[in-house]
Amino acid sequence: MQEYVERIALCIARGKVNRAAPYPPDMKGQDGADEVAADALKNGLQAGALLEGCMQGMDRVGKNFSEGKAAVTNLVISAAAMNAVLKHIKPFLESGEVKRKGVFVLGTVSGDLHDIGKNLVSMIVTGGGFEVIDLGVDVPTSKFLDAIAQHPGCIVGLSALLTITMPSMEKSVRAIKEKYPATKIMVGGAPITQDFCGRIGADFTSHNPHEAVEYLNGIAV
């Protein structure tokens, strides 16, 4: 059964979605994440083991990305392969049979409509075994607060791609910390620096999605 876990991890790391997918060229015509996941469940592999395969695969491609050995396109293709597996284990996740590591509430701050970076982090964090609540873009402070109330103990991620929306990020972070001081907050985006992160009271920042997952793993309960 461990062979299935390794095959899932390989398909995700290489971005092999299904048998019909032409990428990667050296795996053309081979079963992809979709077929392997279906076959694994049919043969009695637990859904939790498939999720472990997803985590291993996304960890590999995330490390390659952090070391400059993979591009954003590789992350996107790997995420597509991961989603092909999640399609099969979604019923087990919804029933609670497969436990998530925690809940990650994510959104682009008010006034900012950029979502590429946010979506990338969402993909990697999902593959890392967390339930992601994606609030979308142009998210007001009140919406972040409502989401935290609905998901006690969650970790929050705020994204800003414009310097002019950094004040919105600061406003949201300060409001969250005032109402929910124990909530861990991760911030990110092109203009966000470590100094700004500390100054507004956030707990972590990184321009590397793999490091974001490592941080989440370190504080997940």
Element layout with pairings:
Layout: H1 2-14, H2 33-42, H3 47-66, H4 72-95, E1 103-108, H5 116-127, E2 131-134, H6 141-150, E3 155-159, H7 166-179, E4 185-188, H8 194-200, E5 204-205, H9 209-219
Parallel strand pairs: 1-2, 1-3, 3-4, 4-5
Helix pairs in contact: 1-2, 1-3, 1-4, 2-4, 3-4, 4-5, 5-9, 6-7
Brief synopsis:
This protein has 221 residues and is α/β, with parallel strands linked by helices. The chain has helices at 2-14, 33-42, 47-66, 72-95, 116-127, 141-150, 166-179, 194-200, 209-219, and strands at residues 103-108, 131-134, 155-159, 185-188, 204-205. The radius of gyration is 18 Å and the shape is globular.
Task: Give a verbal description of the structure.
- This protein has 221 residues and is an alpha/beta fold.
- Helices cover 55% and strands 10% of the residues.
- The protein is built from 9 helices and 5 strands.
- A 5-stranded parallel beta sheet has the order 2-1-3-4-5, with helices on both faces.
- Strand 3 (155-159), helix 7 (166-179) and strand 4 form a beta-alpha-beta unit.
- The radius of gyration is 18 Å and the shape is globular.
- It starts with a helix and ends with a helix.
- The mean pLDDT is 91.
